[in-house]
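Batch queue: ligand-bound targets. Current item pairs a single chain with fe (ii) ion. No template structures supplied; prediction is de novo from sequence plus SMILES. Inputs echoed for audit trail.
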Amino acid sequence: MKVDTEQILRALNASLNSRKLYPAGHPSVTVPARRLEELILDYLKESDKLIVGVVDGTIIVEDIPVDGSEEQFHDIIEHLRKNGVGAIIFMRGAGKEELSRLLDILTEDPPNAPDELEGKLRGKGVTHINLKLLPKEKKSFLEVHGDAVRTVKNAMDEVRMGKIPKSNEVKNVAKDLTEMIFTDSNAMMGLAMIKSYDEYLYNHSVNVSIFSISLGRFMSRDENELRIIGMASLLHDIGKTGVSEHIIRKPGNLSFEEWEKVKEHPVLGSRIAQRMEGIDSRVTTIIYEHHVRYDHSGYPSLKDTLHPLSLIVSIADAYDALTTLRVYQKPFQPVEAMKILNDLAGKHFDPSTVKAFEDMIGLYPVGTVVRLSSNEVGVVTKANTNASDRPVVKVIYDGSGSLLGKPYVADLTQKDFQTLTVVGTVDPLARNMDVGAFLAKEVTAEGR
Ligand SMILES: [Fe+2]
Ligand SMILES: [Fe+2]
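Prediction returned. Tokens below.
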């Protein structure tokens, strides 16, 4: 390696590192930046470009791996990785301004989404530096779920601090969730059985998003609408940040005043969403309408007919709330929750949307604990659309009630299991089973 490229790396590393520690304009920032600029300009007098890349944690300059780069140039490696960049290509003509814009963008916290980097660079007038992005890593189902919960929490925390949440993050999560549901909606609905008691509101919002996107997809809504539904669901209860924690977590009946306060959350929420950048008006409409109910017996009062997408979200909202343990309610089994939704069809919920939801989740929805005719007990991991009474069951307890060392999968539509039938459902609480945790493990075990 030529000496000058090693010097360039040293200056680049120092420039990135100093920006973490010192404000712009501080000599520790400006000195290495100036040095970097001189070196690169010199280099580009002789060559028309300089490529600095990272492969497997090693820096590559002009196709040659740099020995010891991991220790010496740690900051370059870290910043490229954080931004999803595989290589920086400096081209002749890249001057002082462009270099400093590049350093600004690479050190932004939180880092930019990789597919926005290029646009950002161009927007700042950088035309002689190109970035080669790393191939996108596919996120696992659990990672997407975890990101979604974190994003809802962040959004709510921002509101509590008086800030307006960033719409981009919510948009990206809704997009990821939609993608995952297209890949395997059963696995995602299994994850929606993760019911966190402490982090209820965040998990609930994500679960509603999973159920409503799945239902929208089942009802052949287009992908753009699914993302709208997803975003609205993630934000549907954001107005609860304006209701005191004490009321939200109160075990007994609410007083009249307390109830009035709770009833404000759809209006408060839609106002918050309205102030978020670039939000589709349907998102705010859905937030506003999610408790209005089909027969308009809910809140707030509304003269117009409900938006069709609100009908979807309100069913997903009710289903998740019913199947979750709350301070004031033991959770209903999925089958029981479906029965309640059916009873309320035509009153609280649009009958045809309830019907679609029932067709989608099947007779024994993912997460239902069932007893088989062999007296074995297991958890439904997948509904069979053509045979709703014959789901795929992961058998956990043998016929005498002992925990199996190695649970096995019984797809009741398969020949091997044709003599087995579902004879009833079992209350997971009575067996001390955490179905959500079980299904999350399932998804991980299958590497999704
Ligand atoms: Fe709500
Ligand atoms: Fe809700």
